Amino acid sequence: MRHNKKINHLGRKSAHRNAMLSNMCASLILSPNKRIFTTVAKAKALRKVVEPIITKSKEDTTHSRRLVFQDLQNKHAVTELFQNISQKIADRPGGYTRIIKTGNRLGDNASMCFIELVDYNENMLKEKKAAASKGRTRRSKKTADEPVAAKETAKKAKAEKVVEEAKVEEVEALEVAPESLPVIEDVAAEVAPKAEAPVAEEKPKTEE
């Protein structure tokens, strides 16, 4: 049972393990792309060692340089760390490294990966900026109220238009249809002479 045994010894003695991780830290710092390929187990162990070293480099003092050199044992790596890397990661509060798995090794089928410094991968930084620019942005209260006011104005205009159309339909219904006009004129012509014809006076009947 491995209860509370969080340290991966990597199949090595303590001195061998510490020397290996120190060399891997120096290799990561001095590599051109700030990236090295290794197994996943070694990368996870390396991350616990290199991130505290990078945090110490944010304060460029003699004491912090001595502490870092005590772990790295490489003056070129210490110079690179304090002159260049510390400036690049100055605004990052932690999480300086990234582990990306690349598959299994052919010989022993070990899980492989590469570990890199986050701020030195330009492609992923560009993708992150592009995704952030496409994302939703917070709008001020004024700009948020403008669409609401526009919607209300459109609703009022639509309601007024509907009322006007209803009035026009009522007026058209009251008006006489053009097809019925000749019929009405004919009826009026027949009724008019009868109305205008003089009524003959009745002659008084004489008694015989």
From TrEMBL:
<dbReference type="GO" id="GO:0006412">
    <property type="term" value="P:translation"/>
</dbReference>
<keyword id="KW-0689">Ribosomal protein</keyword>
<comment type="similarity">
    <text>Belongs to the bacterial ribosomal protein bL17 family.</text>
</comment>
<feature type="region of interest" description="Disordered">
    <location>
        <begin position="130"/>
        <end position="160"/>
    </location>
</feature>
<keyword id="KW-0687">Ribonucleoprotein</keyword>
<dbReference type="InterPro" id="IPR000456">
    <property type="entry name" value="Ribosomal_bL17"/>
</dbReference>
<protein>
    <recommendedName>
        <fullName>Large ribosomal subunit protein bL17</fullName>
    </recommendedName>
</protein>
<feature type="compositionally biased region" description="Basic and acidic residues">
    <location>
        <begin position="142"/>
        <end position="160"/>
    </location>
</feature>
<dbReference type="GO" id="GO:0022625">
    <property type="term" value="C:cytosolic large ribosomal subunit"/>
</dbReference>
<dbReference type="GO" id="GO:0003735">
    <property type="term" value="F:structural constituent of ribosome"/>
</dbReference>
<dbReference type="Pfam" id="PF01196">
    <property type="entry name" value="Ribosomal_L17"/>
</dbReference>
<dbReference type="InterPro" id="IPR036373">
    <property type="entry name" value="Ribosomal_bL17_sf"/>
</dbReference>
<comment type="subunit">
    <text>Part of the 50S ribosomal subunit. Contacts protein L32.</text>
</comment>
<dbReference type="InterPro" id="IPR047859">
    <property type="entry name" value="Ribosomal_bL17_CS"/>
</dbReference>
